Amino acid sequence: MDPYAECLAHLSDSHCATYLASLGPGSDLDHRGASLTEDLLSRLLDAVRDPVTQRPLLGVARFDAARFLGDADFDGSHFSNEAGFEQAVFLGLARFAATKFGGDSQFERARFCGAQFREARFDGDAWFGEARFADEVRFDRTRFSGHARFGLVSFMGNTAFDGAQFLGNVGFQGATFGGHAWFDGARFERDARLGPLVCAGSLDLSAVVFAAPVVIEAAARRVWCTRTRWEATAVLRLRYATIDLSESVLAHPLTITAQAAPFNDRTGTGRTEAALDESDLGEHDAQVRMASLRGVDAAHLALHNVDLTRCLLSGAIHLDQLRLEGECPLALPPAGIRRRGRIPMRWTKRRTLAEEQHWRAAQGCDAWTAAPAGVKVLEPPALAALYRQLRKSFEDRKNEPDAADFYYGEMEMRRHDLKRPGAERTLLTLYWAVSGYGLRASRALAWLLGAMAATMLVVMLWGLPKEDARPGPTNSATNLGISRANSTADPINPDGPLAQRMTSERFEKSARVVINSVVFRSSTQSLTTSGTYAEMLSRLVEPALLGLAALAVRGRVKR
Fold this sequence. Notes:
25% of the residues lie in helices and 26% in strands. By secondary structure, it is α/β, with parallel strands linked by helices. The strands form three sheets. It has an eight-stranded parallel barrel. A hairpin with a 2-residue loop joins strand 39 (471-478) and strand 40. The radius of gyration is 40 Å and the shape is rod-shaped.
């Protein structure tokens, strides 16, 4: 330290007083490697305090590798030029609230116990690469006019960037957050890359404005994006996270995808890339889950391999333009025999919305997922609209097999809509019972086999005459005399015990009648009046059932 060989902490009292007296506002300070107590730092800053603003005014400030033995109170200071704190160690609270950094600021590899940068202004580039914050750090309402680099930074406690402004490029490559990371109300004006990073708590991006393209790569327990404004293209690659997009504004395409493999450290430091440590997140499934899309215009949204089992969709618009790529599972109905009140039921396996799960549970259906506290249970008309939009999304992309489940859900909600006319609901109930709305081939085939068996039984017992009618001669009078012609005698109804009518011969004849009816052909078999009506009814019902079964098969295999 010019002009002395010793550092400030080792100067004699007289030399220290002389040195401090030589300083004034805007003086350059070079205390690299020095150990500074709270009192000594306070005297040093008082020596450069501007008498007009009453704020410490520093020129070039070099505190690289310095040790601050107590709280380091730089609140309100003004660094008019470069500020260097590389490898500095802060053993107490580092206080830089409302501090202005007029030039580049270097905090790389610095060690902090706790830090306060509230309302600080970084007019140059801010470098925090590989810094370590052992306790809570606050950057609330801080303004970064240049580049903000937080590569490989370790935030061991909670970290707050609430209301911060990032006017230059931002990078958090390789950063780790041991607690929560809050960016509530922050604004990113230039291209930003948040990650790859690991956050053991919640990554809160609520009310953030992304005015330029952004890439977010994060392994976090929860990602909050409520009321977030995406004013440019954005890509979110996530692991472990449950994400909430409620009331977000999407002005440009937003893609959310589940990252299969752990993120690598990509800081550009030249070191070998290694997977980021995700041990704080536990060993549970790294699947990404969507919690809510309520109030979102989904026209620009694409989801890839995102779990929608508990996703709330009420209030979302343009769901017909939502793109679901890869595997995006939804909730399934309860398996096995369940009860609805006292009635045992087996639910059809299909993909269902979380809101239908809530409605079914509210109706007393066993094992369906109940609505969380504070979540309104939707009624069937609203659920039908949601299913209709999702069905259209798949159909517009020529994916009719996967659209079938949403059509089934839409029809189910229409059937349960008490505001619809009773005749319509009855027709829908019949359509559901007979063929599962034209989507359950097994149900239609079961009804077809049952109808064929019933028809065969009726024809065998009452439809076939006692004896086959044989044509015989008849006489008719004409003007020229008597003519002879053949005619068939009327069929004679069978008599005797029913068991005696169930013979192999009558079974074969009735089977031919029924098979011809299924393919809408008339049989040449002579029938009684009862058999004739049974055949007419089967020729109406059984081809329709066969057609419903074929329709269901086609819906599942259509390209």
